[in-house]
Amino acid sequence: MNTRHFSAPASLCNLGAAVPFSSNSASGEDRIAASAGNRHPRAPPSFLIRTATRISRARWFSFLRRVFHYQNGSRSDLGSNPFNSSSWMLLEFIALVIQISIITFTLSMSNKEKPVWPMRTWIVGYDIGCALSLLILYGRYRQIYVTQGDAFGLPAMEQQRSSEESRTSLLMNKCRTSLELFFAIWFVMGNVWVFDSRFGSFPGAPKLHVLCITLLSWNALCYSFPFLLFLFLCCCVPLISSLLGYNMNMGSTERGASDDQILRLPSWRYKQADVNLELGNDVESNSKPANDDPECCICLAKYKDKEEVRQLPCSHMFHQKCVDHWLKIISCCPLCKQELER
């Protein structure tokens, strides 16, 4: 008994070969299945690669990586504290000034409100904590930048100055630790007072209630920053990198090549018959082969007929997609490490 087994074209694509049929239309279906099986997987859109490249080369992304390395790296290789940079201190100053201004304005507009819980006391205590944070921030800035700028003095005074600086830094660290402990306790008390289901403070004091919720949300976001940073750099970034085929953690402005530099490099379609190169971007057709090795050293796959390849200034040849992704990470040849001309 003869039994015919019919399968969907999708299964033929997965197998990469056609199953012979006894019907007359089998040859046409075989050709369709074979051509579909020989297709390469669809590459991600170019604008996604450009977006990932810009994000990996942005200053805020480099800063987040520095913060993560400083918080989770070994003590022997921590480097400088990223939170002591002038840009971060400026952001802290702006955030504290905005909080103090909003709190002062809301307190002046809510004199007639009568909350059930002592929300006004909590807001005033939070405002005092922000003012003390401003003073500590000024002390940090003066200690890091002003003191270092005035460090050129007499040799006899260097030992006394270093001892005074150590005492000041120790006192500054104690003040910062005490203030952080105060904000942590104050945060817990504010959550208990605001979100108590038995006594609703919103009808009697809507402005103070909304202000307390806003301040508590901001503090919750600040306290969850290490977890969000871990989730972003250890989960989101590797997932995006694997989907796009571009390592975002390796991208940098100094080492990666620009799109214009990559497009200026010659490229053509590989001809497997006699290893002659059909040039496509104004390259002379009588040039000799640039690479005697018939496989790409990046993906370790052999060159196929009519595949797009690219040649570097050092005469080494690679797959165009492979070497383009490589050059966006580091602008040198994978084999001889010769840098591209800038």
How many beta-strand elements? Answer: 4
Which sheet architecture does the biggest sheet show? 4 strands, antiparallel
Rounded mean pLDDT score: 74
Helical content, roughly?
55-70%
C-alpha end-to-end distance: 72 Å
Shape: elongated
- Catalogue the unreliable spans: 1-40, 149-157, 274-291
Output the number of helix runs.
Answer: 11
Integer tally of domains: 2
> How would you write the strand order of the largest sheet?
2-1-3-4
Structural class of the helix and strand makeup? mainly alpha
Name the helix and strand elements from N-terminus to C-terminus, one letter apiece: HHHHHHHHHHEEEEH
Spatial extent as radius of gyration? 32 Å
Structural summary, described in words:
- This protein has 342 residues and is mainly alpha-helical.
- The protein has two domains: 53-237, no CATH class; 259-329, Herpes Virus-1 (2-Layer Sandwich), CATH 3.30.40.10.
- It is built from eleven helices and four strands; from the N terminus they run ααααααααααββββα.
- It has helices at 9-15, 26-37, 46-56, 59-72, 86-109, 119-149, 158-194, 206-223, 225-244, 259-263, 320-329, and strands at 267-270, 277-279, 308-311, 317-319.
- The protein has a four-stranded antiparallel beta sheet with strand order 2-1-3-4.
- A hairpin with a 6-residue loop joins β1 and β2 (277-279).
- α5 runs antiparallel to α8 (206-223) and α7 packs across α8.
- The longest helix has 37 residues, at 158-194.
- The radius of gyration is 32 Å and the shape is elongated.
- Mean pLDDT is 74; it is low at 1-40, 149-157 and 274-291.
- This is Zf-RING_2 domain-containing protein.
- Keywords: Membrane, Metal-binding, Transmembrane, Transmembrane helix, Zinc, Zinc-finger.
- It comes from Cephalotus follicularis.
- The chain crosses the membrane at residues 88-107, 119-138, 177-195, 215-240.
